[in-house]
Structure prediction request, 571 residues.
Amino acid sequence: MNGAKAIVETFIKHGVDVTFGFPGGSVIPLFDAYLDYKGKIRNVLVRHEQGAAHAAEGYARASGKPGVCIATSGPGACNLVTGIMDAYMDSTPIVAFGGQVPTGLIGNDAFQESDMMGITLPITKHNFQVRDANQMAPIMMKAFKIATEGRPGPVYIDLPKDTQVNEVTEPIPEEVKIAGFQPTLVPNPMPIKRAAEAIANAEKPLFLIGQGVVLANASEELRELVELVKIPVTTTYMAKGAFDEYNDLSLGSVGMHGRKIANYATVNTDLLITIGCRFSDRITGNLKTYAEKAKVIHADIDPAEIGKNVRVDIPIVGDAKNVIKALIAQLKGMKVEEKKKWTDRIKKFKACCDECVKVQKGKRIHPRDVMYALNDVLKPDDIVVTGVGQHQMFAGHFLKMRKPRKFITSGGAGTMGFGFPGAIGAKVAMPDSNVFLVDGDGSFQMTIQELGTVKEAGIKVIPIIMNNSYLGMVRQWLELFFDKRYSQVNLGESPDFVKVAEAYGLKGIRVTKSEGLVPALKEAVKNDVTTVIDVCIEEESNILPMLPPGGHVKDAFGGCMAEAGKFFEGE
Prediction:
């Protein structure tokens, strides 16, 4: 076989049956090899390489398996960079392939040559350049191993054209080993014992659950741990659904636009039990005042994250599933009294956040009404993907998810344009689930061309466009922090998204009244093709509460009822 066929053989060896890609001169041999493996592997032909990378992310996040994206050299590979960076920030396992000029021309500034090794070095777990066809399969096997083991993340492989056409003379190995790559999966028993004792002795303990629990497929273990100790649970946006948000002990998401009950619980807790969370600035606000009253337990598979941002009293390195199992085993042998006084107070005021901000009825639909309507329609196995902006925060704040891997969003990078191709990848991964996209008119237009992809590939997703003709989140910042000095945030007259959908041979629905939301959603679910729902929302609605950048968590404004405020101040 040649190098291109070795790529496909290695895909099949690793259970990869779909890729997301766009062709070009330097990857012609690879896509040609696909023709010899019909029925075993397919490529979803995207309309832009950025879409390929985000679709690979959506596939990985929904399935737990590595996503694969492919582009040609030069501009094609460079167009993957945004998605690779997004995957790096969100610990998403993808393997990205970019074509390259033949090895003899590397460094000569040949046509469509770019230094992708240099470009991707800081935004990947590792990158490789294949210099010999016999290296092809071993390098790919190492790439999949690195992408998926330990803390997941993206790996980039540079594919010079000649390595794809040259003959492979050595057999594909059964397995590969990587010297020095040995992630710590099983936690040390001593910090587990200390953590269990701290939980038993705390008066106001609180769980802060990050995406590490989702990546470790540890939601069932988390449920068992919470049932055992009956401690309230908060999550990051990336971990929505890791714990059933309909459970009485769920407080929802923390952070800049988190639920006030969740944020203020972190202010009042005396023990913050953090699993699989990296304490980003969007969660903590001012680091000097974050969790200042609490002892902090921090468990993470990446030792570099422990103590990086927040001081830690009990550090635990290990895979989230193994950490939680070890805590359960330790706590079962101890007497742990229920923290009834704490949990009763939490539950009493949790309801305040359901109507945390009073909404005045306007001429157009308020975004919160869209989320309530979607909650009415969602089934437990349905998936919600979001773009980036106000709509993303409304979704994270008001939607309630029962299961992990059902809420997919761009976290660390905050990548506008992620939503639509991410939804495509999620649907390919989970074809039997309804996939809803919550997007803004600004974010959606960044990757709107993927309407062509869903039409030609027969992929059905349901985009819900929150249409207000503004870049909503930036507009909100300008209103609140820049005295409403709006600059470059008004998009003007948006395209007719219904007609755009129809131009691609798809369907579209426009909703102008709140009572039309649920019927539109149900109609879109029944339709056989992608149906774009264009929702005319309030032009200047804000997502509140909001923690000012670098502020104290308790200073989030857009308040709850006065009684809740008194509670959180200790009255």
In short: The chain has a mean pLDDT of 94. The domain at 367-536 is CATH 3.40.50.970 (Rossmann fold).
